[in-house]
Request: fold
Amino acid sequence: MFSAQDLLSRSAHSGLSALREAAQVSWKLYKIMIPVLIGVKILVELGWISYLALPLRPLMGLVGLPPEMGLVWATALVNNIYSGIIVYLTLAESIPLTVAQISVLSAMILVAHSLPVEVRIARESGCRFPFQAGVRLVGGFLLGWLLHLIYSAGGWLQGTSRVLWQGQPDPDPALSAWLLDQVTNLLLIFLIIFCLILLMRLLQWLKIIDAVVRLLGPLLRVIGIGREAATLTMVGMTMGLTYGGGLIIHEAKSGRVQPRDVFAAVTLMGLAHSLIEDTLLMVMLGAHLSGILWGRVIFALVATALLMRLLPRLSPKTVQRHLFLQQTSESP
Reply:
């Protein structure tokens, strides 16, 4: 048995160790996020995002949406979900959508958003940038198309959607307010990562992680995600790609998780992450859980499993060039 003093000393040591690890993980994320956030802000200020929406306008008809919704998706793709919501709210009154339509649009946004930041996080873990960006874009469109076909075939959710969002944020805040928001978000990321590291250590000590991994073992094996990456994948799917991806980067560069498992985990998290917070945001826009939660999770699981089944058929050279680095090292 440990004395109270020993227990306190061990807890303090564990806390300091977790603090150092959180600082390392956060710093890796900050080096990715800060330059990208500044670049995206410049694009927004110059009004160039509207030009990025032009190629998306014809695709909107294929998923049953008005062409103007291309601007909503483009804004979310380049900036973030909240920016896409702001643009949608400015259009919602003049271009009302059905529940099915807002569910389709929301699902597409949830799969593919914040690509400059999130795909760079995937890149730092050893995954190739073009492939991960393509998976998110194509995956978002395919999910939207499938949901459109299903809703249309069954005549489901054809009533007018009702926006529950209370209060519209200022779409063009002052630079000082924007800077304060970004600093707050970066500090919050550090705090959350620190808490996650402490939580993971506690779960490991209590053997809860082992029990969960054993329970999900068959599903994880089907998808192609190994034991070492299982917990990190669950963090990313529930909390968000920034947090799960940050931990994945740390583990990948330490060599504790194999590149193949990193690739599977990052791909799955890319297609389905932040299942709680982001899903609730889209419910407030009037979207239905059938598409933004269940449809998204099923699609992500199936797509990742199929991709991992295809992987052994590819040559190591093709994998190295287009999918992921097979040696855990700093990505070029």
